[in-house]
Write a structure and sequence with these properties.
The chain is 71% helix and 0% strand. By secondary structure, it is mainly α. The chain is globular, with a radius of gyration of 18 Å.
Length: 230
Amino acid sequence: MKNSRDPIHDLGHVSRVAAYVKDFIKDSNLSFEQKQALVLAAWWHDAARALTKNTSFVWMAIIDDTISALMLWKATIKCGLFGRPVGLATRIMVCKSFGIGRILTKILFRKKNRILVSILEDADTIDMLYKERLKCMMLFVESSKLYYYGYKTIMWWCVKTAEMYVKTEQAVKFLREMLASFIGWIKEKTIYDWHVRQFGLEWVKKMLSNIEVLFAFVNSANYKSKVIAV
């Protein structure tokens, strides 16, 4: 991951995702093997990003988890370390694939292990709101159309789609804290003014309104009733 040229899918990102996963599972009833597999998957889930020369917001989002799983499989075979935790980790990553992940999860996992995919997805989702990660993107927005539209897409993704819905009870607390911090950050004068200059006042007001609605929903009983404990 030190070789990744994608500043939002770098070593810092996978380090944080691994840390989130460890927090989610530390008091859980998961087996040692399940925990090993999850932490391994967290560290490797974006390894494919180190293979590309340019950032991709489209095709890599679709296939990076699968390629990363193959990279882990190959690396552990080469080192003579492939075993059950590694096999479980590779399946977790494949099942996290954009679009077909839910179908693959039902095919490749028994019910007791399907929660593992949800835990990794939750950790990855929460890091979308990490301020330093967004600040990194801001540096490129003014000079790159790719990052300009990529940043807008990520903001839309965060506030307008079901992707910001976490599935595990352990992740809800983190999501609430991240959303509160994110809203406070967006309202800071320098950050708010920058967004207005780049995207226009109407877009900023709409985006902020949407994320405040999301924050209220995440704090509602209706949201909590949909999550599951690990």
